[in-house]
Amino acid sequence: MSMLITRNALATVATAAAFVLSASAGLAADAKPLKVLLITGGCCHSYATQKDILKKGIEERINATVEQIHVDDKGTKPQLPIFGNPDYAKGYDLVIHDECAADISDLETIKGVLKPHTDGIPGVVLHCAMHSYRQKDFAQPVTKSEDRTIWFDFLGLQSTGHGAQKPIEIKFDTTAKSPITTGLADWTTGNEELYNNITILPTATKLATGKQGNDEKMVVWTNLYTDKKVRVFGTTLGHNDATVQDPKYLDLIAKGVLWATNKIDANGRPVTGYGRVSK
Asked: Residue 40: is its pLDDT beyond 80?
């Protein structure tokens, strides 16, 4: 097992990027970059590649620096250094959970992972984060908040599995009137996993559905966590590298980061200082 923690400068803008979070929002130099912590590692995904795709893609689109905690442990109990350290996110504006830790079930460990968020730090949850930190009876539908549901309460979604990898038709819900989806177009992914929706919690707001044949599920949403209304953006998309490196996916994640940190306006553009950086 190895651990990687990197601190790199802001990336320059990729001229081919389609993301329109741009100069109309003001120069990024006018504001301190968002400090984002990206957590990756665990089973079943090419995190060694995807962590760098996500870092580069976010930093090219918005005024943010992405620091990484990554382990090469490919098991269902990845030994992430955040475990046992409830202060792991101190000093960060947002945490992205992209780990796959299906068999990390110790309640105190999970409470420690959640501690920054219960204290008020917003989050972004990607793909296998939905199938992590599972406890006894995790497949039993959520009916009330209890110890076994604390991770679901944070996510806004209870999901327990998926079907075969096939393209997913993504359709944004225009009735949600979310700044995250403003300006984004429906698209069809390559082969991806469509996660089931056992329970969509009442604190969650659906932003997009995904369809494989006749099977249609929520795949993008926002959640308001605890009575503090801590902002959490989520998507079940992101299994394969081809999806993660798709500009449409990276546009979506960048806007989710802006929404979670309250740095996006009603028209779907970053507030002054949080648009693209140019040199």
From this structure: yes
- The predicted-structure confidence for 198-237, as pLDDT tens digits, reads as follows 999 999 999 999 999 999 999 999 999 999 999 999 999 9
- The CA R_g of the chain, rounded to the nearest whole Å, is 17
Question: Under 8 Å CB-to-CB from 118, ≥6 apart: which residues?
Answer: 225, 226, 228, 230
Round to whole Å and give the CA distance between 60 and 260.
18
Find all residues with CB under 8 Å of 154, minimum gap 6, and list them. Answer: 114, 117, 123, 125, 223, 225, 232
The pLDDT of residue 92: 98
Are the CB atoms for 108 and 45 separated by under 8 Å?
no
Task: List, for residues 98-140, the tens digit of each pLDDT value.
Answer: 999 999 999 999 999 999 999 999 999 999 999 999 999 999 9
Transcribe the chain into DSSP letters. --EEEE--PPPPPPTT------GGG--GGGSPPEEEEEEEEETTS-HHHHHHHHHHHHHHHSSEEEEEEEE---SSS---TTTT-TTTTTT-SEEEEEEE-TT---HHHHHHHHHHHHTT--EEEEGGGGG-S--TTTTSPP-S--GGGHHHHHHSEE---B---EEEEEEE-GGG--TTTTT---EEEEEE--B--SEE-TTEEEEEEEEETTEEEEEEEEEEETTTTEEEEEES---SHHHHT-HHHHHHHHHHHHHHTT-B-TTS-BPTT-S----
